[in-house]
Amino acid sequence: MIMVKVKLFASLQGLYPEHRIGRPMPLDLPDSATLARLLEHLKLPDTKIIFVNGIARTDLQMPLGDGDEIGIFPLVGGG
Prior knowledge:
The protein is mainly beta. It is built from one helix and five strands; from the N terminus they run E-E-H-E-E-E. It has a five-stranded mixed beta sheet with strand order 2-1-5-3-4, with no helix packed on it.
């Protein structure tokens, strides 16, 4: 098992109201966890921007490691 820390931002925070805003949510995941599996586990909407350890990531098959910090943002639009 690995432990990652997940921060949800903007409207995604409302999906897990039991976690304090701005605080990381610790999650235990299997050693083979990927970003895709993390998103499935969290049951988040499909469109989002993801950072792992401060670097934007688009490859959802990226393996996660113990201690990784993941920030997840919903896509936003303007005009």
